[in-house]
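Incident log, support desk, overnight shift.

02:14 A customer reports that sequence design results differ from what the structure should imply. Their input is reproduced verbatim below. On-call engineer (initials T.W.) acknowledged and began investigating.
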């Protein structure tokens, strides 16, 4: 149990990678508050987890992550209930695939708001408590496109480049307070978004991966567990690639 009795908040925790993170945290002994975009989706995720293991301490909330006051009120309630916040996993996000000439200001803003502004809001909402504790771990979900970009959907890689910069800068600022800040950059992962892609699109991608498979949400979640745990107590300001690729 690498996270025994730790209190964690996971945004975007109702499905895919986020749900896998929540489950892994619970398996390792954490008490988890998951954030969903809607109360119904948060409840559904909590019910599914409780059905699997009734002893897990998990609950759901649904603040508007793009609204700092809403996030702060929700996270303050978590801190008041549990007495501390040890881990924040900033996982909520959206992607886009539209070509640049089809982009509107609203489309660009929607991606940046959830992928970047929400990361700022959630981190800002926990940092005072973590400073008070003199400890804490903030882990942000980046992406392989933050290193390699992508040929369309310009807002998504832009947002993930921003997440990397945020991660490294905040790690430098909060390190003296005992707070570690890292990011995980998943590669192609077997989520709902990937499952609907045609085989002829996926096969060439898999052929370039030495492990000859796409990642599973659990592969990404394992990296979150490691970075949240004391085993990573001297790791901060790292963007950890979890993409199965070999690189120098």
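02:41 Re-run completed on a clean worker. Output:
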């Amino acid at each position: 149990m690498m996270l025994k009795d730790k209190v964690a908040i996971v945004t975007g925790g109702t499905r895919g990678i986020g749900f896998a993170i929540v489950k892994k945290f619970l398996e390792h002994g954490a008490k988890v508050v998951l954030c969903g975009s809607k109360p119904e989706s948060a409840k559904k995720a909590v019910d599914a987890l409780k059905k699997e293991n009734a002893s897990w301490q998990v609950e759901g909330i649904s603040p508007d992550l793009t609204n700092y006051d809403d996030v702060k009120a929700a996270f303050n309630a978590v801190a008041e209930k549990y007495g501390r916040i040890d881990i924040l996993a900033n996982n909520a996000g959206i992607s886009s695939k539209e070509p640049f000439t089809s982009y509107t200001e609203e489309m660009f803003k929607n991606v940046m708001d959830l992928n970047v502004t929400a990361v700022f809001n959630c981190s800002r909402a926990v940092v005072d408590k973590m400073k008070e504790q003199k400890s804490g771990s903030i882990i942000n979900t980046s992406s392989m496109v933050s290193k390699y970009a992508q040929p369309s959907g310009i807002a998504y890689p832009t947002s993930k480049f921003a997440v990397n910069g945020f991660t490294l800068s905040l790690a430098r600022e909060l390190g003296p307070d005992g707070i570690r800040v890292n990011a995980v950059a998943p590669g192609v992962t077997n989520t709902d978004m990937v499952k609907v892609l045609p085989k002829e699109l996926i096969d060439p991608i898999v052929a370039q991966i030495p492990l000859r498979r796409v990642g599973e949400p659990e592969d990404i979640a394992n990296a979150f567990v490691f970075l949240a745990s004391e085993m990573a107590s001297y790791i901060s300001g790292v963007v950890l690639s979890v993409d199965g690729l070999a690189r120098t």
